[in-house]
Structures are given as structure tokens and as C-alpha cells.
Amino acid sequence: MLTVDYDLLDLRPGMTVLDLGCGEGRHAFEAYRRGARVVAVDRGVSEVGTTKRWLGAIAEAGEAPAGAAYEVVRGDLLALPFPDESVDRVIASEVLEHIPDDGTAMAEIARVLRPGGTVAVTVPRYGPERVCWALSDAYHANEGGHIRIYRGDVLRARLAAAGLVPGEQHHAHALHAPFWWLKCAVGVDRDPAAVRAYHRLLVWDLTERPWLTRTAERLLDPVIGKSLVVYAEKPAGAATAGETELERTAV
After folding, report:
1. Which ranges constitute the DSSP H helices of 91-175?
2. Distance in angstroms (rounded) separating the CA atoms of residues 171 and 4
């Protein structure tokens, strides 16, 4: 289930891409299949292990083109272990809402991007997320949970403050918003029949991609899309810190 539009990200083969807060690797997998040199980063040991295993499986199945490469590392988004201006694209999907010092995280993204590079940032959308918070404290008030809800204009302003130029934006995953409202209403740790039925619908949509649900989500995304996606560019004329290169080899 991808949140980022890779055409808007303008991801091309041979580019170096950081997937920050990669989780279990969904965006890293697609970038690798498109021929990128992917570096997936997460703080979690299990997340790093899972992502590495699946990227290895993609490589063994021959699903990535020649020239594609990957590495999976543990890292802190507040102090990325990469040189200045060393990557072409950054993906930060559903991670900034977890970080108290999001300004430093955005500054780190700007630091590692090459001039002309692009970042795709995705966060929970204000309206659907506010409903979840109103229905359930357990949804967000836990260790590692969501600590803020971004308004779109605030997210864009913070990216601009980090030296990036926000551009296109869109919403995604409208069908997931009612699912989480239902989960929050009945209890996030409960699994009644209605929740299981809705989950089966989402799995069917994910695996089969039927016309009915794809059309419904496309129409509903501008209204209740659960995620906000903003694309921002590092200006080509930005001051550089020297010519640096992140060289990664296939694992």
C-alpha cells in the first residue's frame, strides 16, 4: 500500500533514495523495483530485519533491474548517518508525527538532499486524524505514538523553514479513514465482527485492486483521505557543503 506517488516524486533508475522511518519497507520495495539505489532507515530492530529480508527476496526473485541496490540500516532521523548533499530523493512517510523535534528532522532531510533533490513527506491528515483522537486516547497516546496533528499549511511552513520549497500535494487512503474511526469507536484493541469485515474489504482492495473500490477511493481522497502527502524540493541554487557522494552497494 503506497502513499507516495513515484511519478510526482520523479524517481528515476540510478537515483539514491532514503526511505526514512521505513517501517517494514513498503516504499523501499517499490523504489528498489524501479531501479533506485535504496537506503532504508529505521530505529526499530524488527523493522530493519523485516525490510532487509524482503528486499533480499525481491533481489533473489529478479524483480529489481540491473543497477538497483539496497542497504538497510538503523538510524536516528535527528542525526542521519549520511554526508551532506548525498542523496537524490527522500521519503519520510508517516514518521514526523512521532518525532518531538520535527524541525531538526526536517533540517536533516534538507541537509542530506542534493540541490534539486525532492522529498515526499506524508503525515496523517488533520480532519480524519482529529476524529480518531476524539474517539480514542489509546489510538495515539502511547509510547512511540502520534504526538501532533499537522494542518497542511503548518507542515508546508515547517518544510519551508528547513530550506525546502513545498510544491504538489495530495491525499491518500480514503477507505482507511472510516476503518480507523470504527476501530477507535469500539476500542483499538478490540476486534468485533464489523472491524473484521471492514479489514477484509481493505485486504481485498489491496490484493485485487477492483474498479469499484479504486474509483471510490479516488473520488473520496480529496474529502477524507487519511494521509496528506507534500512534495518539497531543495533549491538548485542552495549553498553546498562540498561535493559528496553516498556510495552504496547491493547487499
Report:
1. 102-112, 126-135, 152-161
2. 10
Decide if pLDDT at 136 tops 70: yes
CB neighbourhood size of 201 (10 A) = 13
Residue 243 has pLDDT above 50, yes or no: no
E strand or H helix that includes residue 123: strand 113-124
Q: Is the pTM of this model over 0.90?
A: yes
Domains in the chain with CATH codes: 6-125+147-172+225-233 (3.40.50.150)
Cβ burial, residue 200 (10 Å; 0-12/13-18/19+): exposed
In angstroms, rounded to a whole number, what is the distance separating the alpha carbons of residues 104 and 175?
32
Contact 68, 13 (CB under 8 A): yes
Q: What is the percent of the chain where pLDDT is above 90?
A: 91
Contact 174, 238 (CB under 8 A): no
Tell me the sheet residues that pair with 87: 113
Residues 39 and 139: their CA atoms lie apart, in Å, by 30
CA distances from 232 to 12, 24, 35, 163, 174 (A): 17, 24, 22, 10, 23
Average pLDDT value for residue range 79-104: 96
- Please report where in the chains the cell 513545498 appears, as a residue: 166
Give yes or no for a contact between 123 and 51, defined as CB atoms under 8 angstroms apart. no
pLDDT at 249 over 70: no
Q: Is the pLDDT of residue 72 over 50?
A: yes
Calculate the alpha carbon distances from 108 to 74, 77, 112 in Å.
16, 7, 6
